[in-house]
Amino acid sequence: MKQYGTLIALAVAVIFGIVAVILANQWLSTQVSDEKVIVQQRQIPLAKIVVAGQDLDIGSLLSEQNLLLVDWPKANVPKGAFTKIEDVNERVIVTRVVAGVPIVAAELAAPGSGAGLVASIKPGMRAMAIKVNEVIGVAGFVLPNTFVDVISVQNKVARTVLKRVEVLAIAQQTFVEEGKAKVVNTVTLQLTPKQVVKLAETTQKGPITLALLNPAEDMVAPPKPEPVKVAKKRRTYKRRPAAPKVPTYDIVVIKGTQSVETVKLKTNN
Q: What is the mean pLDDT of residues 154-182?
């Protein structure tokens, strides 16, 4: 009997253990479901915005083929973002954009401004191409979106004719992979109308070369403060008081038949 009692007790323990495991699993499943409900209730508000569906180069024409409409955290929607692809269809982008980045109004050319290099020219500016070689082009490191000084050499004398002008393109490219040098025959610069005339005249007078600038350098050098003119103080001298006049008396001296002589005498007070 004792043997049977032990077996029965063991069987009952096993059954209770299985029941405990089942109940524990059910309880855990309930907790997970509750957490999912809480997470769903706390979801971040989203908004639909237009992003680049692929890497886009400068001058790319936007269309349904290279754009996507995606969910974006509403609180972090960039300023100038678009909510419809139709709003940017057939617009031209003037900066390079990588896939997944929102399209914003500040990065688009004006409607109808054309595609390619034309769209990247700022209002009031001009694009002018100059011939270069490996030396003039700084070993191929003069690339789109970099800045250069234009130096002219005339009669063995070098002078800077243009300072910090932007490079729009090299050859027919408005973008190259960052950091990779590329030797080309032409470089297109963005200039003001006056700078265009000045550069055209300079290229006829002698060879030119380009000096590459650090992109972190300020666009415009801070103006030098004008020297302050300090008025010189005029030294003033105090006049000494005039000495008081000493009263004098005229005395006429007659010496015999000699001429009359007048003598002035001073009196002491």
A: 81
Distance CA(115)–CA(117), nearest Å, equals 7
Residues 6 or more apart from 206 whose CB is under 8 A from it? 152, 153, 154, 155
CB 190 within 8 Å of CB 122: yes
Judge whether 71 and 77 are in contact, CB under 8 Å: no
Instruction: Tell me which amino acid residue 86 is.
Output: E
Residues of the chain within CATH 3.90.1210.10 domain(s) are 42-120
Residue 229 is predicted with a pLDDT of: 57
Strand ranges, E, within 77-225: 126-131, 147-154, 157-170, 186-191, 208-212
What does pTM read for this prediction? 0.51
Give me the CATH code for the 42-120 domain, please: 3.90.1210.10
pLDDT at 193 over 60: yes
Q: Among 138, 117, 146, 127, which residue's Cα sits nearest to residue 184?
A: 138
Strand ranges inside 74-185, DSSP E: 126-131, 147-154, 157-170
Res. 12 pLDDT band, cuts 50 70 90: low
What pLDDT score was predicted for residue 21?
73
Structure tokens at 155: 């009669």
Both structure tokens of 149 = 């000084």
Q: Please state whether beta strands 260-266 and 147-154 pair in parallel, antiparallel, or not at all (unpaired).
A: unpaired
Please give the Cα distance from 81 to 84 (Å, whole number). 9
Neighbours of 13 (CB within 10 A): 10
Backbone angles phi, psi at 173, to 5 degrees: -110, 135
User: Is pLDDT above 80 for 184?
Assistant: yes
Instruction: Give CA–CA dist 136/187, Å, rounded.
Output: 10
